[in-house]
Amino acid sequence: MKSLLSLLLLCFCVTTIYGQVTIKGVVKNEINEVIPYANIYLKDTKLGASANEKGAFVINKVPYGSYKIIASSVGYKKAFLNITVKENMSNIIFTLQSNTQLDEIELFGSRNKRAEKLETLTRLPLAPNEQLQSISILSHKLIDQQNALTLRDVTKNVAGVYTFATYGNTKESMSLRGYRGIPLLKNGVRINSDFRGVGVITDMAGVDNVQVLKGVSSISQGLGGDLGSAGGVINVVTKTPKFYNGGEVSFRTGSFGQIRPTFDFYGPLDAKETVAFRIAGSYDRANSYRTSVSSERFYINPSFAWKPNDKTNIILEMDYMDDSRTPDQGTINLGGYDVNNILKLSDNKFMGFASDRSNSVNTTYAIRFDREINDKLSVKAGLFASNLQTYAEKSYAFQGSSRNKLPVLLNTQRYREYNASGRSDKNSVLQIDLVGKDVETGSLKHTFQIGVDYRTSEFDNTAYKTTYADATKPYVDVIDLSKSIPNVLPSGVSVAPNPARASGSKTKSYGFTIQDKITLTDWADVFLGIRYTSLERTKGNFIGRSLAGSKRDDAFNPLVGFNIKPIENIIVFGSYASSSNPRTSFYTDINGNELGTETWNQYETGIKSTWLNNALRFNVTYFSTSSKNLNLKALQNDGTFLGYYLKGGEDTRKGVELELIGRVLSKLEVIAGYSYLDAKYKNHASYYLNSSPLNTPKHTANLWLRYAFKKLSLGTGVYYLGERPHNIWSRNYTHTGVVPGVKPFNLKAYTTVNLQASYKFNEQLSLDVFGNNIFNELGYNAYRTVYLNRITPASFGTTLRYKF
């Protein structure tokens, strides 16, 4: 009897062990595109899985039996299959039909949809809400719906992102978490490597999405050499090929004489659908609300994709932009350093010359390789490069001072000088990653990345010397803004290169990164990451501070954190990260000792949540970033440099960001955000205790609502930017325009309101009508008092689109 029981028990164990199988499959849509991160589960069981970025899923340890297997993804209708499990299954294919009512939710990065090229930025194959860092994705659907033309038009939909400066409407410098000029990437590569983060102009015709990674990003981006590196990164992602035929043409016209045709064509190039192309482009010409100011731009974005087999993808990309525009210094402040009395300059007046021009030619290239080794492992490699050439000739109006040895002009009078500048900026990134998805080691599950990268950056600034008609005067003329302003450049004014004042830098760096998301249980994940970077400069001349020979810096930067899911729709997260800045490491103290790299430390915590069946997301984030080892100039009160530097000071940023994104009703979309920022200088050699960085608002807010009827949709956007200091409050003369001991005036807060209406005549043809800043709010973006640029007044336009 005992032997019989033992035999039965053995049979039961064998049946239990071997009566379990694996189910594999893929989730696609009706046009045969894979659907990344879809949810697949067996009804009335706890068995299920999430698809990877290629739509593939694996469900392990499924007992023999009959089941209803269900697949779902935001923007698609659920699909199910009835299956009987007797052996391993590897050929299940789900085809999900688009849910037209929910399709547009991918305005702000869907919970279950992969953002194109997000892994280029983060290096981990995770959806945005699964990442440890705070990431916002702004899709091309939002760009189209809002008829956005600039990077600042798009990113103002992200809580805490605001315009730092436009430098005479020739660039777009964005700030986040109180850090000026955060790095701007295109497809993962720098475009303008100026450490001040001055930014560039971007055309939206070729943009698939814009990714905003908030906070320290050293784990994937390496050493942070920019003033804004600790604030975050903006990555502009261009469009890539599709393996089905389609396209769109549009024509936009509007205020200030704007005309803008665009095109976008894509499809396969062979019957087997292994090669595909895409080409997008635009032409843009416009005047301005201000006389004598205009712009013209040509843009094209071709790309090719090749799938030699089911496990290999190769994509080639290029985009080219040629932009020419009139720099506009804006207006002047009639008050002192501490008094806001900005002159509202009449639109029929221009402080410069009609021949002033700023030209930018930017070309980016990329080749990406993706090879799937098996269901768990893949190799990803990419080579990204950018070449930016800029040249400007323009006037500059100034008041005069003892520093330039000219008498101070009062009231509305200003000297007007003329200058030129040129810059060549070349950057590249080569990165290779081994990526694992849901790799099991015992009871633990790992999603990891092990990678190396090689980065190069080289820029050369060409300085110019101006010759004036009257050699005794270092300026062109004196203008009075209360009277007529001549806009024709007088004869006898010329510019020529001045090699003695040229500057530039050449750097290369090597990085090694390991990241691992360790799933401990269904409700707890731990993130561990470490990066080692070695950077070498072989030449350097930074605004008069020269580097002789070469200089090498290296650093280790960690990223650690956790995700805890107390209930299914809520994630509580926390993290620590650091970033190192080697830009000033060769500065020496009074004894000639190098001061070394600066370091930032960042702590984040918050909640990520989804509601209404994943249709609505609500996130809360608290952050704290600080640095206590800044390399600072030793200065006399008048700004005279003493020839050495100090190690010290403390720079802190703390704040809270709130975001509500998605759909509150079946036809009502919402994007809402609010940011509170407490940015202060502590124990600084020059800046007053608890003073704030320039152009740093305590409060920003954004709201976008869109309601869709059958053929008509209506949208409105409201955007608030709080008051902020126009310059630094300092004991010494540290920067242009600073008056020692005097607190700078604040730029006034402003709120703009936009309206959008779109009518679909059929599935192909639609018409958009829109108005921006419809209440003609008056506001200014400033860079100290060098540029005081008014925000664009009320403007209106229409866009006619045809899709095929």
TrEMBL record:
Main localization (coarse): membrane
A Pfam family the protein falls into: CarbopepD_reg_2
Subcellular location: Cell outer membrane
CDD domains tied to this protein: ligand_gated_channel
Provenance organism: Polaribacter cellanae
Name the record gives this protein: TonB-dependent receptor
Annotated TonB-dependent receptor-like beta-barrel domain residues: 306-774
Cellular component per GO, a single term: cell outer membrane
